[in-house]
């Protein structure tokens, strides 16, 4: 682990939660077992209906808790944590999903890599928590011209080699806090999905590389937070945010291609809606239509569907 003048850089781990009491509890426990000497931990309770933050604050006194009254999406929760890190003069901010478990040596490995690069966003090797040895992500790539963001997974030959990538999953990202003045915070218009890709691509535009560090390991219960959502919301965010990402980052050739694709898709939707009544009654199909319409009129943020609230358990104390 690299040190400056004999003092390790400070790291602020930011765990964002909305409905994952048990997950967040295990994530915090793993961070508190970290070998890193100057690690501070912040839990962002992103407007949870059950006030998870109050419960976990009582269980984990070393952890600082930020309670947001409304759920502004994953980006908003992360941004609250980034502001916390800035206000406290922390050197590196580490954003984490609540359904992750950190290896005790993960933070040290991430700091070493970021320090050696002189300023970069760095991501760990992310493994499936339910599949022993299975790798979920070693960074990401963009498939063009479709502008599809794919994870580079376990079948790649260089999963044990550090390398620069186009983007990395927002479930675990470390950023030098001073670089936020150049890159900015996450775009809250996305609410959920692809805000991490947007942030990484924006960083690259400002000369800040994104790196994958295989020595840093994290276990992730993939899609556990998505399981709490209305499936129409998932479809809505996927379509609306894909267009937002593409029109923001794909350049004029990409924007022309997506404008053509958008027009053709809209024509298909109109024809199906007009001539096949079953599509008008199909909520799953309607979610895509609503996503495209909202993108066209510039409506972003939360999906227009009521996601189910997390189930009450005996372990949760409501304020």
Summarize the model shown.
It is built from ten helices and twelve strands. With 319 residues, it is of the alpha/beta class. The strands form three sheets. A five-stranded mixed β-sheet has the order 3-2-1-4-11, sandwiched between helices.
What is the beta-strand fraction? 15-25%
The number of helices is 10
| Cross-sheet strand order for the largest sheet | 3-2-1-4-11
Low-confidence stretches: 311-319
Tell me what you see in this structure.
The protein is an alpha/beta fold and 319 residues long. The chain folds into two domains: 11-227, Spore Coat Polysaccharide Biosynthesis Protein SpsA, Chain A (Alpha-Beta Complex), CATH 3.90.550.60; 231-297. It has helices spanning 21-32, 52-59, 74-87, 106-117, 180-183, 195-205, 231-249, 251-275, 277-280, 283-297, and strands at 11-17, 39-46, 64-68, 92-97, 100-102, 121-128, 135-137, 140-143, 148-151, 163-165, 172-176, 210-220. It has a five-stranded mixed β-sheet, sandwiched between helices. Strands 5, 6, 7, 10 and 12 form a five-stranded mixed β-sheet that branches. Helix 7 runs antiparallel to helix 8 (251-275) and helix 7 (231-249) packs parallel to helix 10 (283-297). The longest helix is centred in the last third of the chain and has 25 residues, at 251-275. It is globular and about 70 Å long.
List descriptors.
319 residues, Spore Coat Polysaccharide Biosynthesis Protein SpsA, Chain A, 39% helix, 21% strand, globular, disordered C terminus
Present the secondary structure layout.
Layout: E1 11-17, H1 21-32, E2 39-46, H2 52-59, E3 64-68, H3 74-87, E4 92-97, E5 100-102, H4 106-117, E6 121-128, E7 135-137, E8 140-143, E9 148-151, E10 163-165, E11 172-176, H5 180-183, H6 195-205, E12 210-220, H7 231-249, H8 251-275, H9 277-280, H10 283-297
Parallel strand pairs: 1-2, 1-4, 2-3, 6-12
Antiparallel strand pairs: 4-11, 5-12, 6-7, 8-9, 10-12
Helix pairs in contact: 6-7, 7-8, 7-10
